[in-house]
Methyltransferase
Amino acid sequence: MTSEYLELNRALWDERAGAHAASPDYGFQRFADDPAHLSGVVRFDLPRLGDLTGLRGVHLQCHLGTDTLSLARLGADMTGLDFSGEALALARELAGRAGPPVRYVRSDVHDAVDALGAGGFDLVYTGIGALCWLPDIRRWAGVVAALLRPGGRLFLREGHPVLWSLADPRPDGLLVVEHPYVQRPEPTVWDEDGTYVTTDVSFTHTRSAEWNHGLGEVVTALLDAGFTLDALEEHDSVPWDALPGMMRLLDNGEWQLADRPWRLPHTYTLRATRR
C-alpha cells in the first residue's frame, strides 16, 4: 500500500476508535460485566472454530480487540495487531478490565512478520471488514503463511465480495453491481462522514481507500502461498446493517436481506492449513 493510502486510512480509523468503543454495538460494558461474553462475530463461528485451548494465535487488523478477547476467552493465547494506536489503546483498556490478558502490537499488517516473528503461531484469525483495506491479496497471503508454523491454520470470516460490489440502496429496491468485484490496482476512494456504529460524533477524516478481492483471488492466493483449503462456506447474513433500508435483524444479531436473501451471499468463512 502506498504511504498516501495507508495514512489516509489510518487517520480515519484513529478518529473513529473512540466512537466505536463508546457505541453499544461493540458492547464494552458487556465484556466487563460478563466474563463469558463473546463478540457476535466469534459467537457466530463457534461451531467452526474448533478447540482453541493452548493455541498461540494472532488476530490481524484487530481494531478494538473484541474478537481478540473473545478468542482468548475460548482458551487461545492471543496477540492482536493493528495499525491504529488509538484503537489499540482502547483494546488494552478493555482487556485490562475484562481479561484474560491479550498482547497488542501496533503494526501495519504487511509488517506483521517483522513485528511478531516468523513461524510462531498456531492460528491466524482475520475477521469481518479487514481484507478490503489491503491492496494486494497475494502479499497478505504470504504474510499469513510466514506467521504460521507448518500445520498452523488460518480462520477467516469476511464480507462477501459480491456484497462489497453492490451500489448503495436504490429507491426502486434493485440490487445493482456498481463497484469492482476483483482486485484493481487503484482503490475505490470513499468520502463519507459517518461510520457503521450508532453514534452522534461528527468526523473530520472522511476519506478512505478500499480494494475488493474476488473469492477466487483469495483462495488462489492462499493455495499459492502454501495452504490447503479445509472449508469454504458462504452465509446469508452479515454482522451489520450492510444495505440500510433493505435488511432485517435476525435473532442471532446478524442482518439479512429482507427480500429473497438467497439472491446473494452476504459473508463467507474460510479455513485453511499451512502445508
Summary: The mean pLDDT is 96. The two ends are 28 Å apart (CA to CA).
